[in-house]
Amino acid sequence: MSGTRPSGLAAASLRSSAYDTHWVAWLLGVVLLTGSHSTVAHPAPFSYLDLKMDDAGLHGSLVVHDFDAAHELGVPDPQSLLEPAVTRAAGARLERLLESRMQISADGQAVTPRWLPAVAIAERQSIRLEFTLAARAPGELRLTAWLFPYDSMHESFINLYERGRLVQQAIIDAQHRTLTFYSHSLPGRWAVVRTFVAAGVHHILIGPDHLLFLLGLLLLGGSPWRLVKIATAFTIGHSITLSLAALDLLRVAPRIIEPAIALSITVVGIDNLLVSGGKSAGQRAAAAARDLRPWLAGGFGLVHGFGFASVLLELGLPAGALGWSLAAFNVGVEIGQLLVIVPLAMFLAGLRRWDGRLADRGVVAGSITVAAAGAIWFVQRTCFPP
After folding, report:
1. Contact at 8 Å (CB) between 39 and 69?
2. Mean pLDDT lowest for which of 97-106, 124-133, 289-298?
3. Which letter, b or e, does each residue of 55-64 get, where b requires 16 or more Cβ atoms within 10 Å of its Cβ?
4. Does the pLDDT of residue 284 top 70, yes or no?
5. Which residues lie below 8 Å from residue 254, measured CB to CB, with a gap of 6+?
6. CATH assignment of 187-383, given 2.40.440, 1.20.1250, 1.10.3470, 1.10.260?
7. How far apart are CA 363 and CA 156, in angstroms?
8. Distance from C-alpha of 186 to C-alpha of 167, rounded to nearest angstrom
9. How many CB atoms sit inside 10 A of residue 119's CB?
10. Which helix (H) or strand (E) holds 156?
11. What pairs with residue 313 in β-bridges?
12. 124 class by beta-carbon count within 10 Å (0-12 exposed, 13-18 middle, 19+ buried)
């Protein structure tokens, strides 16, 4: 049914608790206003947008209150908009206005609504505007809207239907203006994979703390098998906590995780110095045999996984593709790691073959830098949190 309000649970993808609070407040407002319709007292500030995807393509229905429409169009009497002739005359103006405040893209391409004649719904004191958007159902649908900015309390309830089934509900308001939906079709799954793999790669490449941690683990070098063990241990560690946190099975506050990530960097740098500093070749070989880096990578990988999860949750996990999005983000993180690990490991190995003493100095200097940077971040994140 067009204009169905979302349940608190279904709208949790944006802000379920805020929905519950506002729903009670505005329901009380509706009860108080049912006996009259005044241009002085603002009725419940709601609008409703249904978006439907099926074999016929992508189309929608927007229901707005006559009070909001009258305010935006400069009509003194909102009830006059419910007269069929006035509705048709004002519909085109209202369509142009709302179209400028509602951006919709299908598979990354902006789509423009093709409007049908506006229809008055007198019993609801509302106007319904129906439109079509695309000839085929997209895999990824993105909506950015803020329909009535004159009213900071206005909320738009969004219902998304796929082949006649309600699959997602959300609320858009002044603080939350964007909604992304991935269909349950093969193109939708591919869109999820493409989006979250790219997000994983991007996050690892712009995260100086994660990159410095990887650098610290690689500075001492080692055989290809040893480096694979280190990278695999880190992957297993962060994959476990990333999955637990993203699925809301285990959460740790950022005020704990962020300093812990910084501390992990310092520990790796200090461990490098203890292994390499002032030791003979034989002593370094014996230390290498007791290499703790795989254990450090796995243990601290658990900590870094919570950091990855915070980024993933900010992106917003699609309710119908949790597994796909989680796996794709993890793959992206691994690709990002490989983009750093492989060239760096090759460079360090080449430097050792070319000049072993210079490489040893580089390990010491690099380890001091890693440890110092981690210590500075630890102090900042502990004493001066954002």
Report:
1. no
2. 289-298
3. eebbbbbbbb
4. no
5. 310
6. 1.20.1250
7. 57
8. 16
9. 16
10. strand 155-162
11. none
12. middle
Where exactly are the structural domains of the chain? 10-183, 187-383
- The candidate with the shortest Cα–Cα distance to 215, out of 372, 333, 367, 346, is 367
Q: Are 304 and 240 in contact (CB under 8 A)?
A: no
Residue 107 to residue 53: CA distance in whole angstroms = 13
Nearest to 79 by CA among 128, 115, 123, 26: 123
Mean pLDDT over 151-163 rounds to 93
Are the C-beta atoms of residues 157 and 171 closer than 8 Å to each other?
Answer: yes
Quickly tell me which residue has 């993890």 as its tokens: 330
Average of per-residue pLDDT across 253-258: 92
- DSSP sequence for 175-216: S--EEEEE-SSHHHHHHHHHHHHHHHHHHHHH-HHHHHHHHH
The tens digit of pLDDT for each residue in 164-183 reads 899 889 999 989 999 989 88
pTM (predicted TM-score): 0.71
Q: DSSP code of 377?
A: H
